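Here is an idea for our session: we take a single protein and study its fold together. Once you have written the record down, we can walk along the chain together.
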Amino acid sequence: MSAILNLFKLRIGVAIAIAALAGLMVEAGPRPGIWQIVVLTLAVLLSSAAAGAFNQYVERDLDAKMARTRKRPFVTGRLIHGPRWLWLIGTLTVLSVAGAALAANIVASIHVFLGAFVYGVVYTVWLKRRTWLNIVIGGLAGSFAVLAGAAAVMPVPGPEALALAAVLFLWTPPHFWSLAIAYREDYASAGVPMLPVVVGDARAARAVLIGAWMLVLASLIPAMFRLGPVYLVAATAGGAWFLLKCHALVRNPGRETALASFFASLVQLCAVLFGAMLDVSVG
């Protein structure tokens, strides 16, 4: 069971599903029924799980070279690497897209598909081994989750959902570059051109800080529209904590400060997503 949970990256999937739920809740318009919300959320979770499994299927050779990933099930042999997994991943993707279409509409299903496609194909296959921009463009996967949720309410997203999608896009680079600084030697040994490998820890840390400032400022934009003080307090507090850790990373680039920045980015994202949903619920 632990091998399956690892393969499908369910922790990431849960975060993506929460992003979709937040997109649904902040979008102005008539709410879908409970069953529709549940099915759409599960569809997003399923598509993220399929993309995560495809990522591990494609990257078995890279995972074997990195200390952080060499215990993944395809590397250790707990799961046998073979084409049957591609059939399962494809089936899960089709089910997730169909579920989104059934629960919401074709626009939501397109966003669900695009989220999986960006992570599984654009990021994993096309970009990761070629350019440090891999994770920048790969950040669109989280944005499509927000738009999928919003599309269940209105096919054309409003300013709140668009702003939240932008936040997810801007969140990914400083989040992942923090982790990449902590595991720079891993990525270097695997030949993956993550930003710290290309420019070094100090310059990568400055990029994290710049990205964090862009993220935090963007996270305040939803408060200019439908979201109110509850969201603003949560986004400000989470953003301030993340910026504090990013400044510490710039002052002393290294594994400890990079991991602190990485975990602070998770706090910031939770503050934004749960702050948005709580604000709408009590507003």
Summary: The mean pLDDT is 95. The first helix runs from residue 2 to 7.
